[in-house]
Amino acid sequence: MTTTVPTASQLADVCDLALRVREELRRVLSGLDDAIDATLATVLAEGHLLLEDVPGVGKTTLARALGRALDASVGRIQFTPDLLPSDVTGVSVFRGDEHRFEFRPGPVFANIVVADEINRASPKTQAALLESMQERSVTVDGETRPLPTPFLVVATQNPIDMEGTYPLPEAQRDRFMTRIAVGYPSHADEVAMLDAHDGHDPLAEVRPVATAADLERAIATVRGVYASAAIKQYLVDLARATRESADLRLGASPRSSLQLLSAAKARAAMAGRDHVLPDDVKALAVPVLAHRLIPAAQARAAGRTAETVVTELLSRIAVPTARTPEPTRG
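RESULT FIELD:
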């Protein structure tokens, strides 16, 4: 079967878009290049992003900066224990003067939805996002309404052992393409942050550098990036290894294989390549897979995390070395 891959011009457009957005994000976040690149790969793969770490390390800043760098509609939801599902999806209001119900859309009706501290809301409210994240539609009062395209959720959450948090259900974690731990900055980066934030807010300087239409074209280009049969076999071998590992109680789902392939295609396109390399898969395996996995009791007792298990599996699974067949250009 032949594969129609992007042209050099289309790949150049993706590289240019990623470069412009990356530079805007760097205005407010120093030393987070790996997190920024994983974020961009998720966006270009049309996936949803989960930013997880302790308070104050820049999760919400990264989400807000991304929304500003992309000239698209942005809906922001501050998740709290008393937040209702209708506060997310919208509500039908009766208009007495016209004797009819009128639907008032919630903040989820946007190209980019920033869900801040998503695990502070009750599981019922968290579940309000499930349909929108998977089906890209919302059903209210028996009527299904499509969401705008492109559509992506950028959620932040604090570690679940912190006060006032609820763990995300496995089904919802599985709908996030990637989970990124922002982490603390280095000494030099923290000094640079103090200089950048001294007396003004760098977030206010972030300007839109790409439109929703630009993003939609880039996403379409990424879909056409070529992945050989050997690369797909490598992905399946990795997913199956997580399911068979004695260190894991829950392995990677088939959805995770699909999403890892999409993210790897995005990384390849960002590098100007029309085909996926094993390095693309290895670079994104931990962000895409780890949050879906549940370590077994003995692994937790030994202090082994899902990230550690994925990294070890990557070192054991044979990497494809055969020459990638030349794809057919359209």
